[in-house]
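Project standup — Tuesday

K.O.: blocked on the structure for the chain from last sprint. Re-posting the sequence here as requested.
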Amino acid sequence: MHFSVSFTAALFAAALPLAGLQAEPLQPLPAVQVANATQATMLDAVWAGDRVVAVGDHGVVLLSDDHGKSFRQASSVPISTSLTGVSFADAQHGWAVGQWGAVLSTADGGESWAVQRLSSEEDRPLFAVHFFDARQGVAVGLWSLVLITEDGGRTWTEQSLQAPPGAKRADLNLMSLFADGRGALYATAEHGQVLHSDDHGKSWRYLDTGYEGTLWSGAVLADGSLLLGGQRGALLHGSIGSKSFRRLPIQSQGSITSIAVSGPRVLVAGLDGLMVQSSDDGRSFQEKHSADGLSLTAALLTVEGAPVMFSRRGVVP
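H.V.: unblocked you, prediction finished:
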């Protein structure tokens, strides 16, 4: 994996050296309420109904009820370690994952959270989570870690993942999850691999994109095809039936951290201020950079197509 000086590198630098090592049982401390919470690095964001919920460093959870114009910190988060992924099944019920394999749940739209899972014996972080409904969910993370739940997260079961073609074992870091709205789930991973599941994470098959770097993010476009983002400006387009994925030409070398889709509009965001936008379902893209070149870490689109973005310095005004 290529680690540049970025929010991602900082996160993994903290997590990877400890992974798999025995440690003293973790005694989590709750996230602190701070005046400058909107300046914390946000690592993922989703819509919970009309509310934006973003999660990030130090257990900070930010909420916005005006489509990203203003944010406030969630009132109660039981851990103060990094939260790396978040998913909502509806406007009230959501889950967040992060370091120490933590899974948090909320039943009040993100205002308050409770611990469902915490691995205190080893730091095997979870990087992404997706819930299909209020009961069925999947979380993925370090070294091909796949967890599934069928009871809203009260219990989680680890799924054994078969090795990729040509490999002896499955030890990929699974970086993100995204779904197509019809039950198909995808996970991006290292070595250009994308995993595909049609049974809510119980079994997976590999899609080889022909790319060799890490894929950080992905999304399903309106026509059902896949858009994948990776290291050094790699933006790939293809489908399950494709024998290969096409690399879309963009000038930036910034790694792509987030892809948002709203109808025909697509927003791709990444390090070094990378922004690539499409208004025709990904058939053409226009590239630009944020004025300050600040690395973008998460992005959403409103129904009207307006961007809601986050950076390593927090909420982007």
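K.O.: great, moving the ticket to review. The radius of gyration is 18 Å. Residues 1-23 have pLDDT under 50 and may be disordered.
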